[in-house]
Design goal:
- The chain has 229 residues and is an alpha/beta fold.
- It has a single domain (4-228), classed as Spore Coat Polysaccharide Biosynthesis Protein SpsA, Chain A (Alpha-Beta Complex), CATH 3.90.550.
- Helix content is 34%, strand content 24%.
- It has helices spanning 33-42, 59-67, 86-95, 116-129, 170-183, 190-196, 216-228, and strands spanning 4-9, 27-28, 31-32, 50-54, 77-81, 103-108, 131-137, 143-146, 149-153, 160-169, 202-205.
- The protein has a seven-stranded mixed sheet with strand order 5-4-1-6-10-7-11, with helices on both faces. The protein has a two-stranded antiparallel ribbon with strand order 2-3.
- A hairpin with a 2-residue loop joins strand 2 and strand 3.
- Helix 5 packs across helix 6.
- The longest helix has 14 residues, at 116-129.
- The protein is globular, with a radius of gyration of 18 Å.
- The two termini are 31 Å apart.
């Protein structure tokens, strides 16, 4: 296995959650959501350096309240200042990696139920194909709608919901970001940047429990999943 780097992105302001506390810092069973996410990566033996991208003003808070409770492992976490957009934040994380080769995992800081097996599967597939994401097939029937009316029913067998982690050859992802920047292309995930660069992206099986916590309903579900687990 080549060197593996993890970029965990938690720089968003999270307006959909409401309240005064950013969603990544909300409590989930005695630890913040971000702490629980970070813990999975800290304990994964094949991951080398971990880069945590958060608002720059939150560095001290994150050291004390997010990282310190997990430092039994002795792992160093590199704090990186986030940008205005996810694109900017991940780009900042990539720029901090002092290497030109290896595998990089990009993961949402508010997906705390990612498993070591999903991480390992993404890493292994990225070694083989240079680009892959965790994804799950859609379960519901999907409709195209215009002006409140259904225009078509989509064939759901070929539609998957993208998750993170997303794992890439480091040089490929850096090149994809540079190409996107030069062409004015933006996207909501890293796989789309690699696709825009003209390279294929594989998928590995994610999990329906690997939810992204963005709304109060998501938080309630996450707390229930934690209790059930």
């Amino acid at each position: 296995m080549p060197d593996v780097f993890a970029v965990i992105v938690a720089a968003g302001r999270g307006t959909r959650m409401g309240g005064d506390v950013l969603k990544q810092y909300l409590d989930m069973g005695g630890l913040s959501i971000l702490s629980r996410t970070l813990e999975v990566f800290i304990l994964h033996r094949q991951i080398g350096r971990i880069y945590l991208v958060v608002p720059e003003n939150d560095f001290d808070f994150c050291r004390k309240m997010v990282i310190a409770p997990l430092m039994g492992s002795g792992r160093e976490i590199h704090l990186i200042a986030g940008g205005k957009t996810r694109f900017d934040s991940v780009e900042n994380g990539l720029a901090a990696i002092p290497a030109s080769e290896g595998i990089v995992l990009v993961h949402d800081g508010v997906r705390p139920f990612v498993t070591p097996d999903i991480i390992s599967a993404c890493m292994a597939e990225a070694v083989k194909t240079k680009a892959c994401i965790a994804a799950v097939p859609v379960a519901d029937t999907l409709k195209m709608v215009s002006n409140g009316r259904i225009t078509s029913t989509l064939e759901r067998n070929s539609i998957f919901m993208a998750q993170t982690p997303q794992a890439f050859d480091l040089s490929l992802l850096k090149a994809s970001f540079a190409f996107a920047r030069s062409t004015g292309f933006t996207a909501t995930d890293e796989a789309a940047l690699v696709e825009h660069y003209g390279k294929p992206v594989s998928i590995v099986a994610g999990s329906r429990a690997n939810i992204k916590i963005t709304t109060p309903d998501d938080l309630a579900l996450a707390r229930a999943l934690l209790h059930l687990g």
